Amino acid sequence: MKKIFLLLILTSFTIAQTKIEIKDPWLRPNAKGANSALFFIAENKTDKADTLIAAKFENSEVVELHETYKKSEDMMGMRAVKFVVIPPKSNVVFKPRDLHIMLIGLKKDIKIGENYNLSLIFKKAGEIKINAAVRDMPKMK
Ligand SMILES: [Cu+2]
Asked: How far apart are CA 34 and CA 45, in angstroms?
């Protein structure tokens, strides 16, 4: 009986270990009233998929999960998605002209060199707090 109880504790501990690691989070600078975006690498170290369902940022009016898509031959567009799946044992890269967290309607200037707290909310891992540095956008090729 004692053994079974211990096994239950160990099992629930394993479930609680469901873990996503956020690497190298950064924001693009912009002026108050304009939009910014958050980029990072989401690493799922577990053998189960997790899903990014929302994000929080206190310095923008709206926060959305966005993807970039090909609008036409020579035009890229972006649109909101409801969630982003992070497959088991893999990385999903949020980067310019790809997946990103759109920060719409900045309440203040976001300047290079500053740092901001944000949260990413996953279905299993829950809320993950991150601190992102403001960096210049990489140059277009
Ligand atoms: Cu966007």
From this structure: 35
